[in-house]
Amino acid sequence: MADHEDELATTRTDGFKVGEKKTVEEYQKLEDTEITYIQATALYLLLSTFETVADQLVLDQNDESLNRWKASLGLGSGTPISNPNDPRTCIIKSLALEVAGREDITIDLSEPGAVDSLKDKPFTIKEGCRFRIKATFQVQHDVLSGLKYVQVVKRKGIRVSKDQEMLGSYAPNTTDKPVYEKKFNEEEAPCGMLSRGRYNAVSRFVDDDDVDHLKFEWTFEIAKDW
After folding, report:
1. Tell me, what CATH number does 169's domain have?
2. What band does 30 get if pLDDT is binned at 50, 70 and 90?
3. Which site from 27, 71, 112, 125 is most exposed, i.e. has the minimal number of CB atoms within 10 Å?
4. Vertex 183, ends 216 and 108: CA angle to 5°?
């Protein structure tokens, strides 16, 4: 996997500096007087990729607006479900191949050996069809800032594509929202006799602090039919 480090390098979120984000506790302890226009603008740049960003950038200076802002970040809603015995911030629970009109092909990554088996059990994708990858994950302990998915695809050792997709920033899951689900951008499989065959991919889930949450190799087959 070390051979893929340079290929899987990411670009950073605009306006974000490593180590700049606040912890969940710091966000929850913010006082009304701390939310000035300038600070709200800075926070917006930092948190602009949150799944549920506050509707208003400039907040009213009262408790109600502050609480609404915190709630928009997923803070203070429901009971935390973080596992104190699991230090991971982001747990990728499953990956699925979604094609309209067909049942999802889902890989449960909580199963022992599931990640290692991905490169030996290729997905089959019909040439020319439109498909998307779907990820289910859980965030715990701390705010997850700027989660990205990076993918490099090769065929016969030659790189044919590199894609990076911003998945967003997320507060820790609670009983009100136990998991997050993210559908990636739709793609179209190549078609034609020369495009058929096996492809090898390396993928990485990484955040703006350059922390890897999952890195794995997998394969897929482009075939004439399912």
Report:
1. 2.70.50.30
2. low
3. 112
4. 45
